[in-house]
Amino acid sequence: MPVSRRHQAIFVHIPKNAGESVERTLGIYGGNPAETAWGIIGNNVVLQHYTALELRDNFCTAEVWDRYFKFAIVRNPWSKAVSEYNWYLKYGPSVSFSEWAQSLPHRLKINRTIHIFEVGHNVEQYKYICDAEGALLVDHLLRFEDLRNAFAELSTARHWHVKLEHAPTTSSPNQISFKDYYDVETAKLIGAIYARDVQLFGYSYEETFAGTTLSETPVAIDAFFDPDLYLKYNKDVKAAGVDPRQHYLDHGIKEGRRIR
C-alpha cells in the first residue's frame, strides 16, 4: 500500500513510471507492514495501483489524507506506451507495436465497462491523480524524464534523507529509444488516445519527435533483432544450435532476452 508512516507521504503509483523504485526507496514496496498504513495487503492485491481518489475515499482517514504529503510521477505518454507494450509482450501474444496500439481503444473501452484495469496498465495517467471533475488530488508531480534529480530535490525539501533506489526487476537489457518503435500513424494514434495526458502534463508531439524521422510503415516486431548479437548475448541459444531469429520470436520476446 502506497502510504509511508515514516515519511508522512502518500505515493500514487502510476504503472510503468518508476513507481517500484520510489516504493523501495520509501520502504513501502511489497506491503512492508512496518511502514505502510494497512500492513501486508499492499502489493499482494491484484489492483495494486490505487488511484488517488480510491485512496482518499476508501482507505485514508480525512486526517491522514489532509496531513500527509501526496505525490506521483508522470511520464511522456509516447514513452510510457512503449514501456507498456514491452510489459504486455511478456504476458500476451507477440504482436508488433502498431498492432498493440491499434487494440488500445477497444481494450480501454472494455476496461472502463467492466471496471478491470489490467492491473492498472494502459489507463490514462490523469485518472490516477485527478477526481471526476479533473481537479488534481496530489500535492506534487515528478517527471519520469528527470526523476533522479527531481526526487533528490524532493527528498531534500521533505527531509526524507533517502536516495532513489534502482528497481532491478523493471529494467530492460535492450537500450532502444522509444521513438524507434513509432511510425507516423502510430505516433498520432497514441497522441490521440492519451491526448488529455499530453495536454495536462505539458508534453507535445512536436517536442517529443523533434529531429526524428518516423517510419511511414509500421515497425516490425523483430525490427531491432540482430542474429549475431542475439547469439553473443544468449550463449544457451548458440549452444543449442537453433535458428536465433525463430528462437527470439518463439521465446526471446516473452523472456525479455537481450538483443543488442
Describe the fold and architecture:
- InterPro entries: P-loop_NTPase, Sulfotransferase.
- One of its GO terms (molecular function) is sulfotransferase activity.
- The protein has 260 residues and is α/β, with parallel strands linked by helices.
- It has one domain.
- Helix content is 44%, strand content 6%.
Task: Name the assembly state.
Answer: single chain
Structural class: alpha/beta
What does the average pLDDT come to? 89
Order of helices and strands: EEHHHEHHHEHHHHHHH
**For the terminal residues, how far apart are their CA atoms?**
36 Å
Q: Report low-confidence residues grouped into runs of 5 or more.
A: 34-47
Number of domains: 1
User: Percent of residues in beta strands?
Assistant: 5-15%
> What gyration radius follows from the Cα positions, in whole Å?
20 Å
Helix content: 40-55%
> Main sheet: which strands, in order across?
1-2-3-4
Tally of alpha and pi helices: 13
Report the major sheet: 4 strands, mixed
Principal-axis shape equals globular
Tell me the number of strands. 4
Keywords: Transferase
Pfam families: Sulfotransfer_2
Organism: Rhodobacter aestuarii
InterPro entries: P-loop_NTPase (IPR027417), Sulfotransferase (IPR005331)
